[in-house]
Amino acid sequence: MNEGIKICPQCNAENNAHAQVCASCGYVFESEYEYSKKLEQILKDIESTDEEKEKASPDLQGTGVSSATNQRSNGVRPGLTERNGYINGRAVASEYRTPPVKPRMGAKHAWKKYIVPVIVVLVLSVSFITIFTYNNQQRIRIDGSFNDWNDLKMYRFNAGGVPDNIDIFRASVCVDGKWVCFYLETKGRMFIGDAHAASPAGYLDIYQVFIDADGDANTGFFVREIGADYLINIGGTAGNIVVRELYRFDPVNGVFNWMNKTIKTNIECAFSDASLETRIQASMIEYSEKTVVLFHTFSYTGAEDFSDYIVSASKSPVVVTLDYTGNRVLAPQQVPLLKLTFTAPDNTVTISGFTLSERGTGLHVPVVITSEDGTSVASEISGVTYIKYALQVMPSKPVQINVLANLSEIPAGTAFGIDIAGRDSVTADGVVTLVKNKITGDHAVCGYVSAPPERVHIDGAFADWDNKTKTDDAGDAPAQYDILKFGSVRYRSELNLYLAVDENMLAGMDVPYTGPVKVTGTSGGIVKPAEEVSTYDFVRVYIQSGMPVAGYKVGGIVANYMVEIKGKYGRILEKNFYVFNGTSINAWQTIGSVNAELDNMNMEISVVLETQEELAVVFVTSNWNRSMDYTFNTLGISRSVQTADKAPLEDATAHVKIDVSDTDGFTPMDAPFSPDAPIFSPKFNASNPSCAVAANGNIYVAYQQNNTNSYGVFVRAGIEGDTGTWNIAFSKNGTTTDVRNPSICIDTVTQDIYVAYENATFSFLKYSSNTWAEWYISGWDASRWKNPSVVAYNNIVYIFYENESTTNPGKYDIGFVNSTDGGLNWDGYYYFNKPTTDERNVSASITSQYVYVAYQNETGGNYNISWYSCPIQGSSWSGWYTS
Questions:
Q1: Tens digits of residue pLDDT in 112-133
Q2: Domain limits, the chain
Q3: What are the pLDDT digits (tens) for 29-62?
Q4: N or C: which end of the chain has fewer CB within 10 A?
Q5: Is 260 strand, coil or helix?
Q6: What digits encode the pLDDT tens for the residues 862-872?
């Protein structure tokens, strides 16, 4: 065999001598360690055979076999002893003796000098065939019986906090011959979906495995610090699996692009109760020893769970938890900056070192790493520095170390901090998961030595913004974009901006949830909600300079400049500075660069703006799904005339916050530059509006719009008292059929928004938990349902509609469907069945006690009004109609 070639026993393809997986068919070779173990066992078997022969005599007296050793000591040749007067078949007396023979040293083992090399050659030459026979005896069967997993490595995760049916409890991954097998177990029964509901609609629970085939976070889809090249997607409801897909993410076309995937194949899987197993050929997912895996589940309600750490078939996991222990202002002495806690959930893992990234100075700074046992390692950091630090982490015995820096020689006012960029910064013989805890108290990633400078600097330390910020209402938006503080300082043409949120700024979304996936009909067809291309979060700062004639109206200003920063996982991915350059949609033009720094709670920004005019600023934060928080600004920022080395002129603007808690869509991600035209501008060709007002003063208008080939439904949002800011919150475009005649309402208890409209499949929009999603009402032919009217109170929802008669086309009856669980399940449909020939133009209202409906009816050419009421959860309608 060629020394540099390894022949696959399955397909006979040539591979590199050190290959672990056949590049042609995916067959998994055994390691050299396993080869040596096989050879060692063969030699042990040979040794044990000789020893058994030597020890045979004492145990076999009377059987005719004697000990060769004893015979040598008596000068007798080895052979058969006397039995019935025979020795070696000859009739010779027992007194017969032969002359003593001097034994040769090692004679009994001399043959090994010749046979062992032969065995070695044979083992190495046929090892692939032998290994294939061994591995091909597949132990994992995908049959819903899980005893074959009992002896395999099983990872355990913390349970709780999510519904039992998606709460990840245990998982495993292993290589079995040419297969890679996956096991997932939840705390409760899997694939329930909405089957528990009184009238289930077929919504699925989803179970996923993200597979980073090459161990490179920079390829595939970036999720929790792995670059998923493949995705296993298994969905089901009512105890049945109905979706079982393998997706492949494009390796280079956008690591944060969720839409950047294609279905590769359907896969083999089985489940029973709370356990699921599946397998895929190793070649199909390009498996290697670098491959790592992350498990993910989510319910049709939007709840989700991830495995607590990343796992692998070949290496044990280790979790590294990072706490920032440095302060916003650092004493000029040796101070703690990081605390690292290493935990091994399974087997012992050896850490050999880690890479520290300096924030701030760029100077050479002495550092010391100390452990709990009192040992320490001294080093020095400048920029990005690798620190050799060996330690063993054993199961159930976490190891904690601290990183300290000596700042006694660092000038006052200098920014300094230390960070660990990602899990690849830790070198270990296991699979690393890095967890960064929230910054608490006065701690910071980067601080100022001795005291902050008087002038604001964009350097990742934020104590220089103290006493230069305003506060915003806390708790009125999700933490990752809930604005807590904001500020702006101007030095001549340099505009500096500051923003703080509750936690995890620019976190983005791991896996976007845009609504439940549904199985429909007896054929098992799948209806999926529209997916998001991106999962980014945004920070936008709108700037009004002077009194512009045209601009973007937001938060009480007319913005003619905007800073936009896009990011995910706490990383700034794009940053742009725009000027408004026209009056049409997206009339923004890039004019300059942006300097920005952030940690997981704070961001500071600087742009150059050459203007003598007074400025006004509005800060807007928004998540990937268009939910947002923002500040409201009515006054201006005066231009500083001081020199750079003087104290800055503080932003004297009086900021007034209008509560827009959990409001959606003021700045849509896919069209960030909405028009400032009036909402009912003729250029939209819009008609049939419906209006609702939320408790916080936000106004929502739904209407239909002619899109040349078909109608679509749009929802625009505005602010009470602000006639200029009307931006798209959601749109539903018709493609081959019309989507038209919307009706909008807001649940006065939950503040959820419902939009019903007519289309070929009866569906409605719902805004809840910061998410717009389209839901379907299954079970009825809605093609004849027209002009709906929707009302809601405390998750009780009624949709009234005109239903075209099948026996008398062109004539309508009034019917309705109703839900008591916020639209998950529906009862109906019902008709009033009054003695009229045509009923139209229905209008409804609801209170905490009753639901009311009125409509027009026509009998014999005369038009009358019918009005009815019913207890909110009753079934008896009473009322009157004119005649």
A1: 555 655 555 554 544 443 333 3
A2: 1-60+105-137, 154-306, 317-451, 464-513+520-659, 664-881
A3: 665 545 555 555 655 665 555 555 444 444 434 3
A4: C
A5: coil
A6: 788 888 888 88
Q: What are phi and psi of 236, to 5 degrees?
A: -165, 170
Contact status, residue 403 vs residue 338, Cβ threshold 8 Å: yes
Classified by CATH at the fold level, domain 664-881 comes out as Neuraminidase (2.120.10)
Element (H, E) at 746: strand 740-746
**Which is nearest to 489 in space by CA: 455, 463, 460, 462?**
455
Between 32-54 and 112-135, two packed helices, what is the crossing angle to 10 degrees?
130
Distance CA 474, CA 440 (A): 16
Q: Report the pLDDT value the prediction gives residue 307, as an integer from 0 to 100.
A: 97
Q: Burial letters for 469-494: b for 16+ Cβ neighbours within 10 Å, e otherwise?
A: bbebbeebbbbbbbbbbbbbbbbeeb
Are 166 and 305 within 8 A, CB to CB?
Answer: yes
Kind plus residue range of the DSSP H or E element containing 275: strand 275-281
Residue with tokens 């899980």: 146
Calculate ∠ Cα 549-550-554, nearest 5°: 115
Asked if the domains 464-513+520-659 and 664-881 are classified in one and the same CATH topology, the answer is no
Between β-strands 838-846 and 827-831, what pairing exists: parallel, antiparallel or unpaired? unpaired
What class is the 464-513+520-659 domain?
A: mainly beta
The bridge status of strand 317-324 relative to strand 431-436 is parallel
CATH code for the domain defined by 317-451:
2.60.40.1290
Encoded tokens for 109:
């083992």
Q: Which residues contact 600 (CB under 8 A, 6 or more apart)?
A: 436, 438, 439, 445, 503, 504, 505, 570
424 token code pair: 């690849």
DSSP 3-state of 164: helix
DSSP state of 63: T
Q: In what order do the strands lie in the sheet with 785-793?
A: 785-793, 796-804, 812-819, 827-831
String of DSSP letters for 45-57: HHHHHHHHHHTHH
Instruction: Quote the DSSP letter at residue 750.
Output: T
Q: Considering only 123-132, 723-732, 749-758, which range has the smallest mean pLDDT?
A: 123-132
Whether the bond between 829 and the residue before it is cis, its omega within 30 degrees of 0, is: yes
Closest alpha carbon to 168 in 149, 190, 151: 190
Neighbour-count burial for 761-777, b at 16+ CB within 10 Å, e otherwise: ebbbbbbbebbbbbbbb
The tokens describing 402, both together, are 């601290």
Query: Residue written as tokens 């005599």?
Result: 57
